[in-house]
Amino acid sequence: MQSRFLHYFVTVVDCGSLSLAARRLGVAQPALSQRMHAIESELGVPLLLRSPQGVEMTGAGRVLYRHARSILLQLEEMRSEIHRTSEGITGTVAIGFTPPLAAVFELPFFLEMRKRYPEVKLRIFPSVSGYLDELLINGRLDLAMLPRNEADSNALSIPLAKERLCLVRGKQASQQTALTTEFKSLENLPLVLPSADQALRRLIEKAAERENIKLNILADIDSLSGLLSIVNTGIANTILSSTALVLRPDLPLHSSTITPYIERTVAICPSRASPVTPAAHAAIEVLTELASNLLPTFS
Predict the structure, then answer these.
(1) Which distant-in-sequence residues (6+ apart) come within 8 Å of 100 by Cβ?
(2) CATH number for the 162-264 domain, one of 3.40.50.920, 3.40.190.290, 1.10.760.10, 3.20.20.140?
(3) Sorted alphabetically, which SUPFAM superfamilies does this protein's record hold (predicted)?
(4) Which of 17, 180, 194, 287 is the most exposed place for a label (fewest CB within 10 A)?
(5) Please, what is the Cα angle at 136 between 278 and 123, to 5 degrees?
(6) Where are the domains of the chain?
(7) Cβ atoms of residues 238 and 248 within 8 Å
(8) Looking at domain 3-85, does it have CATH number 1.10.10.10?
(9) Do residues 200 and 146 lie in contact, with contact meaning Cβ atoms separated by under 8 Å?
């Protein structure tokens, strides 16, 4: 069924009269009446009740009207989007980064988007992964770049790189800390970690359960900058990805990779609340290219 015939049907219903609809559409009334009969014949059900007072929809007609309006609206949006794309990608992209990833990506991402897509407006939200997940769910973000545990990933996520967790210690321990640390050796070590509702904490606790050890957690700290400041005092240690250390380059911290490796995936996560727009596709393209240079990848 051609879209213009759906337009004819919707116009007839909106006008409530074949004669009024024919005038609005600029077609002869007999031709419009024949087209309505042809649609009914194609679908095999009556769609309109005709009377001297005008036309009314049958039950089947209401179903067709609802779907026809939706289809016509989508076609109009498609034409507008294609037109905008042909003239250059425009629009707004709301994107979230966890603080460590923001420190690495925010500036190069902004500069590259300005260079390639100057008509795209960026809204950048740095926050913890749990809050970014909420913003994705309610549609306030188009995209987020997040570390993902295997259990938290979904089919829409676009994996970029693997990152391994490290033991981070203060300057007092820097001289004696090796390049790797066995996870079992952390059992009696004082730790400060992100709170229990954070994906990183769940990953660490799962590893502790697997290794059958109990961690000595002094405090839950969701501010990464604050967490690193505490570690710098030497009172406690923490477990983070090496990327997180870029937040406080002023601190003389030392990291060692935990073995067996505890890994998670850095991914671009689109919102499920709305379709990915051309502007969001452009942002994904830029982030994917930047990630190949800015993120380490482990096999």
Answers:
(1) 224, 240, 241, 243, 244, 246, 247
(2) 3.40.190.290
(3) Periplasmic binding protein-like II, Winged helix' DNA-binding domain
(4) 180
(5) 60
(6) 3-85, 91-160+266-294, 162-264
(7) no
(8) yes
(9) no
CB atoms near residue 39 (< 10 Å)? 20
pLDDT in tens, 45-67: 998 898 888 888 999 998 998 88
Q: pLDDT tens, 88-136?
A: 788 899 999 988 888 889 999 999 999 989 889 999 999 888 888 889 8
Instruction: Render the burial of 245-259: b for 16+ CB within 10 Å, e for the rest.
Output: bebbeeeebbbbbbe
Neighbours of 212 (CB within 10 A): 8
295 exposure class (CB count in 10 Å sphere: 0-12, 13-18, 19+): middle
User: What Rg do the C-alpha atoms of the chain give, in angstroms?
Assistant: 29
Evaluate whether 165 touches 239 at the Cβ level (below 8 Å): yes
Phi then psi for residue 83, to 5 deg, are -65, -45
Count of beta carbons in the 10 Å neighbourhood of residue 141:
24
Strand, coil or helix: what is 229? helix
Dist. CA 291–CA 267, nearest whole Å: 10
Residue with tokens 């979230």: 96
